[in-house]
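#struct-pred
JK: can someone run the complex with NAP? inputs below
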Amino acid sequence: MSDNIKEEKLVIVGGGPAGLTAGIYGTRAGLNPVVLMGPEPGGQITTSPEIENFPGFPEGIRGFDLMQRVIEQLENLEGRMVYELVRRVNLDKRPYIIETDGGVYKTDTVIIATGASPRKLGLESEKRLSGRGVSYCATCDGAFFKGKDVAVVGGGDTALEEANYLTRFCSKVYIIHRRNKFRGTKILADRVIRNPKVEVIWDSELEDILGDEKVEGLIIRNNINKEKRELEGVSGVFIAIGHQPNSELFRDYLELDEQGYIVTDSRYMTSKEGVFAAGDVQDPFYRQVITSAGAGAAAAIEASKYIDNLN
Ligand code: NAP
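RT: done, structure tokens with the ligand placed:
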């Protein structure tokens, strides 16, 4: 264990909407929490091209810009943000131990806000061609496909948003969805269906991705008649089939549900006293920036009450 040991009242693990909002509330409550920003400062939402449903931004705002403002807000409050990755934790008993690549934090109170990561299809070709035409983020990689044909897999809000975004650069955007109805919001679905550059391939799944060094085509399977066909000339495929909670670090210590979400009570307390969880790692239902931020605020208020009762 590192000899760089810090004793803290409150450690917040994760620097997305939930973690940073918990940081704002915890800092304003005088707890001087440390926010461990993790591998994706600002969280998944930083890759969202346009957020139209966060109150207070009538023109919409890019995910990156929104989170930059939240980071700036925490800086203005003299909140502590540390750009370290958590390697392991020990939540057996208090004080809890959070070990990062920069040191060791001992604390009686933790808020876990580690978010979620894109789910993978699990194809061998997906893994092999990842970063060579297979992507999980249109905002990050879309511009590489200027003038090309691409496909998006999925039928939720992410897939719809990404498909729409990709029409800015690409000649044609296929959406491959396994059913005949989108799961995503009607306003996004209508926008996509009206877009002349988009072709929806309903009732179909991606069976294989062709190409040795880069994506050169796709094999899709129709779920109704089981027929397979090749989509030629597709040079990029964006997988947008949902997310899985980043809860692995905590598996040995906390109750998780069957999908891996951290289970909390109505006050955001996990199965361990003094350990709270908020945002996409804990919420299988809403998964919005606004609900994650709200949960982060609530978890920090509860953590503050908990700390008061310890003293
Ligand atoms: P999601 O809502 O869970 O949708 C996942 C999609 O992928 C579904 O259409 C699902 O098909 C499909 N899918 C899942 N596993 C698959 C597989 N193995 N093969 C093929 N298709 C598969 O995920 P999401 O779109 O990432 O959205 C997550 C949450 O974030 C949602 O609550 C969403 O509202 C929110 N979000 C909001 C916004 C916004 O408001 N601007 C933007 C992005 C995301 P089925 O439909 O058949 O299940």
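RT: quick notes.
Helices lie at 17-28, 63-76, 124-128, 138-141, 157-166, 186-194, 289-310.
The pocket of NAP is lined by residues 53, 121, 153-159, 161, 178-179, 183, 205, 240-243, 287 (CB under 6 Å).
JK: thanks, will look after standup
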